[in-house]
Inverse folding.
């Protein structure tokens, strides 16, 4: 595998390798010395148009993970709240038993939910995730949100700095090789770094054409924190776009011209652009053709004119705004 240091020059390194390694996700070195593949499979099924979570009512996630491993993915992302950990674990177990992959080849991420933010609750919650996954350790464990809640979804008065102390305990115990956060803003990240002995290895946030998060990406590059991008397609597809979502869609003529120039799909152009921004995208799909296509983005690179076109779609539009928490003092999207 290719090993890349996550520094300000990662983009150039990725681009220099891009033309020779189709279908391979190069490894990026984290600030703790571990490595992470630069593209992964997301397993969150998302929201319905009515705002409810898409239910997990079949084994499509397990099959998707199996297909992804066969296609060369080595980075799988899940979370306690997704209700997909059991299926992710079943797929990993099957592929290991088949000899297709070894545990050490895989990078598995899960996340701590809001109702386990007390320092003493972190390790037990992680152990529950590991039991569902059938694993002895995670490669990356993230605080899912900076917002603490009770079992009944009321806000809990727990500072995420306390939660981070529990995360450090989990890492020290060998239950998580690396630890990080998700959905934190610059102010929250900076505060956490200033008050902790261990810097987050990674930040997972929404990044797509409509929400390119320049300030946050620049902060993370300066701090040597890897950025993992969820919802990488944003509102690209008509069937997923809200009525108020800005363009582009997958039939946008400018995007189609770029895709045609590289003999790629618009979705692949989208993913390639995020990678060139220094983001590790984790597209989700349960469709074999799309799973296979999504990782075929390391055999070409965009030119500056193309990147300028893609940059023009940045409208600071957030697909996942979780406005039900906007009155929390820890709500991350006010800044």
């Amino acid at each position: 595998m290719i090993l890349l240091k996550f520094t300000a020059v990662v983009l150039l390194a990725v681009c220099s390798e891009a033309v020779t390694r189709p279908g391979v996700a190069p490894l990026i070195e984290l600030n703790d010395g571990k490595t992470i593949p630069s593209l992964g499979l997301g397993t969150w099924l998302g929201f319905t148009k009515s705002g409810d979570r898409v239910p997990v009512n079949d084994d499509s996630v397990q099959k998707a993970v199996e297909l992804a491993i066969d296609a060369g993915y080595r980075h799988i992302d899940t979370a306690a709240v997704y209700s997909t950990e059991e299926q992710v674990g079943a797929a990993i177990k099957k592929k290991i038993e088949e000899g297709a992959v070894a545990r050490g080849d895989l990078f598995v991420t899960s996340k701590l939910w809001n109702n386990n933010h007390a320092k003493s609750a972190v390790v037990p919650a992680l152990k529950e995730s590991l039991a569902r996954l059938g694993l002895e350790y995670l490669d990356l464990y993230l605080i899912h949100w900076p917002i603490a809640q009770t079992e009944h979804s009321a806000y809990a008065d727990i500072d995420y700095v306390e939660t981070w102390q529990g995360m450090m305990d989990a890492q020290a115990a060998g239950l998580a090789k690396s630890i990080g956060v998700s959905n934190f803003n610059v102010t929250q990240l900076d505060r956490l770094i200033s008050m902790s002995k261990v810097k987050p290895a990674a930040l997972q946030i929404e990044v797509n054409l409509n929400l390119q998060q320049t300030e946050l990406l620049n902060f993370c590059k300066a701090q040597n924190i890897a950025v993992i991008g969820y919802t990488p397609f944003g509102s690209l597809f008509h069937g997923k776009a809200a009525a108020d979502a800005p363009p582009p869609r997958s039939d946008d003529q400018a995007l189609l011209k770029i895709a045609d120039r590289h003999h790629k799909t618009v979705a692949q152009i989208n993913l390639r652009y995020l990678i060139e921004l220094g983001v590790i995208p984790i597209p989700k799909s349960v469709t074999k053709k799309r799973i296979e296509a999504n990782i075929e983005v390391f055999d070409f690179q965009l030119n500056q004119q193309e990147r300028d076109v893609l940059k023009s779609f940045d409208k600071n539009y957030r697909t996942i705004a979780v406005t039900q928490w906007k009155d929390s003092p820890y709500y991350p999207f006010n800044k």
In short: The CA atoms of residues 268 and 294 lie 6 Å apart. The radius of gyration is 19 Å.
